[in-house]
Every structure is written in C-alpha cells, then in structure tokens.
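Morning, I've got a small favour to ask if you have a moment. I'm working through a protein record and want to make sense of it properly. The fold is given in discrete form, as structure tokens running alongside the sequence. Can you walk me through what the tokens say about the fold? Thanks so much in advance, here it is:
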Amino acid sequence: MSAGELFEDRSRAESFGAVAELYERSRPSYPSALIEALVGAGARDVLDVGCGTGKAGAPLLERGCSVLGVEVDARMAEVARAKGLEVEVARFELWDPGPRRFDLLISGQAWHWIDPQAGAAKAAAALREGGRICLFWNRGDPPEHVRERLVPIYDRLAPEGESETSALERRGRVVRKTVAGIDRSGEFGPAEVSAFPWSQVYTTEAWLEARRTRSGHLSLEPQRRERLLEAVGDAIEALGGSFEVQYETVLVSAVRLARRLA
C-alpha cells in the first residue's frame, strides 16, 4: 500500500482509548437487522477484530455466540470485558490465532485501521472453511440544512480535518479498498456489499459527545478542538437543538474458500 493510508496513521488508529467510556456512551450501535444477518447462518465461534468497547460483539454474545475480541488498546478492551467479552490486546495484523478457527469474523467501524491486504490474509488464517468475514460501518451525515451550517465552521477552524460533508464519500473509498483486499487475497469467494438503513436523533450534547470520540477531532490541539466544538454546538442550538441522521450500515462479506493443498 502507498504511504498515507489511514491504517498507517497509528496515532489516530490508537487514539480512542483516551475516551473509552465516552466512546461506549456516545457512539451509535448497529441495527438489529444487521445482527440477525450475522448470526443467520448459524455462526457460533466469533472473532471480533478491533472490538473496541464491544458494541458489535456484545449483541452476538447475547444471542449465544462465543465471542473473542482482538483490540489494540487495553483501555477499550477493559470496557468490552465488562460486558462479558474475552479480549486479547494486540494489533490484528500481528496477532496469532494459533490453532483456533472461527465460524465468523466481524469488524465494526474498525477495518479501515487495518491493512486491507494483510488483514484479509490474517482473517483467512483464522476462519474455518466456509466461515464468513463480515466487515461493516455506519454511514451517515447530518441533514443538508445542518451541513450547510457546519461546513463553514470546519473550513474556518479545522480546514485540514474531516469535513462534516465527507463521511459518505470517505467511507465509500474504505468499502472499495476493503473489497479489493478481500478479492486480491484469493482466499475468499466474491465479496458482497449490502446495506441496512436506520436513523438516530441527536441532541446538541449527544452530537458533540460523539464528535469528541472521532479520531480527526482527537488529533486537534485541545484548545482548538474546544473552539470548534463550541461553534458547532452554537450552530446546532440555533437550528433548534436536535436533528435526525439517516444512517445505513454497510456490510462487506465473503465466504472463506477451501484451503489449497500444498
């Protein structure tokens, strides 16, 4: 991969532990239709890559699956363990599954922090033949009237950072690179992309809390971050103090092929 890929920015990739409890409280979960799709094929042994605070793994645990998380940050891992998940602290590309094999490998909001080619190869090594890799992201932007207020604020106070209008485009690129990594590995059947729509209403406070857990905001100098968030909060309050985000959870999935004979 060329220099400048998101997964190579380790300071951002490993920044979330500083706000682990806030991350757990403020980040959205996943729609029940996605969870049902993950367990629908009868998976029981699940590997949760970049499990974070257990937002994806915990619902599978509740449905009777055995879930092992791999998480790079020990502080995030502790929150997940409090939900009952077993978690091993490691960077996935360097993690060793040993003789263990899984029916299902999931990764929610995390695969963009993993080298898509090395990650696909490691996933193949950890899955049983016929097992599935399922990688997913919540995609959504504020409604147009809110974006119109927020874009000038970001252009003025954080022009080099993440634009509030760029989420769909940015995550679209992530999905394309993820599919390419799976396909190039030669270890999986064709990657499929599906989407699960849902929505969530945010108050000003809830939106600002969620912003405080995003890597682009965490990377800002603290005083600058506070000026940015204060301006964002004022803008949302001027619009009535709440808005609804139309999300879709995009799922990239593929089936592990039979292992090749040497």
Summary: The chain has eleven helices and seven strands. Residues 167-185 form the longest helix (19 residues). The mean pLDDT is 92. Strands lie at 45-49, 66-71, 86-89, 102-108, 127-139, 192-203, 242-255.
